[in-house]
């Protein structure tokens, strides 16, 4: 692909099977990680991205002219386990994981960008963007313009990455589990506070586990989901782990 297209603009979209069940890992990487098959999968994915993509781009002299964006479509899956050992993903301070609708651990993932000829290295941007932003970003890079006859949910990432704007263009973000709306976040522009309301949350099994081990994956509807009226409300700016739901008593606003 690189050899055929290196002298003209190209778009390469790579959607890896890693890290996803069934955890298919080649022999070379089986047993490499202390975290079971899930860890082996992560290590193989890391090797593939480095060897097949980044190294080749560098070797072909395309490093400074190629915009690379690496992200995941959801947070780490937590339910993989052997006996009492949890061998799934790890989402840091964030509650929940893959398939959980609105919890931060299921939707908040790193976006890693590389474009040495244009973007400075080592920059950290703590603004929430969306995978829907890829489309308008690519259109922008190609010198085109997005359709004007409909609402486009994404925003080009370039101004944020280049520092010409300080905040994401997303004031509201809607978080679905399948076709069911589970949560909505609001970035309050005047104060900079990020609020999130949960209308439905998965019922963890066991209750304090933070995952759905007994089901294998959390459902989006039915008896495996709790509905909240009024919704659970969190101030993510102060409580990113979503531990303390607010009430009229604790938050007059």
UniProtKB/TrEMBL annotation:
Keyword Chloroplast among UniProt keywords: no
One Gene Ontology cellular component: endoplasmic reticulum
Signal peptide bounds: 1-26
Database matches in Pfam families: Sulfatase (PF00884), Sulfatase_C (PF14707)
The organism's place on the tree of life at top rank: Eukaryota
Cofactor(s) named in the record: Ca(2+)
GO molecular function: arylsulfatase activity; metal ion binding
Classification via InterPro entries: Alkaline_phosphatase_core_sf, Sulfatase, Sulfatase_N
Keyword Ubl conjugation included in the entry's annotation: no
Gene3D superfamilies membership: 3.30.1120.10, Alkaline Phosphatase, subunit A
Domain Sulfatase N-terminal: 5-143
Keywords: Calcium, Hydrolase, Metal-binding, Signal
Similarity annotation: Belongs to the sulfatase family.
PANTHER family per record: ARYLSULFATASE D, ARYLSULFATASE FAMILY MEMBER
Protein's name according to its UniProt entry: ARSE Arylsulfatase
């Amino acid at each position: 692909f690189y050899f055929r297209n290196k002298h003209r603009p190209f778009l390469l979209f790579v959607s890896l099977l890693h890290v996803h069940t069934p955890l298919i890992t080649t022999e070379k990487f089986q047993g490499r990680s202390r975290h079971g098959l899930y860890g082996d999968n992560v290590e193989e994915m890391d090797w593939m991205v480095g060897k097949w993509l980044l190294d080749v781009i560098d070797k072909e002299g395309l490093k400074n002219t190629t915009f690379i964006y690496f992200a995941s479509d959801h947070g780490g899956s937590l339910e993989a386990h052997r006996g009492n050992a949890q061998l799934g993903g790890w989402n840091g301070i964030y509650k929940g994981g893959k398939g959980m609708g609105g919890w931060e651990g299921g939707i908040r993932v790193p976006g890693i960008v590389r474009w040495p000829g244009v973007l400075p290295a080592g920059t950290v941007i703590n603004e929430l963007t969306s995978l829907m932003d890829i489309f308008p970003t690519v259109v922008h890079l190609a010198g085109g313009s997005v359709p004007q006859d409909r609402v486009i949910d994404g925003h080009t990432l370039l101004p944020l990455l280049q520092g010409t704007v300080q905040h994401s263009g997303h004031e509201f973000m809607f978080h679905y589990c399948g076709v069911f709306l589970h949560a909505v976040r609001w970035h309050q522009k005047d104060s900079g506070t990020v609020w999130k309301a949960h209308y439905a949350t998965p019922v963890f099994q066991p209750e304090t586990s933070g995952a759905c081990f007994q089901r294998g994956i959390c459902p989006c509807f039915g008896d495996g989901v709790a509905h909240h009226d009024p919704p659970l409300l969190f101030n993510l700016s102060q409580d990113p782990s979503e531990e303390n739901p607010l009430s009229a008593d604790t938050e007059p606003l």
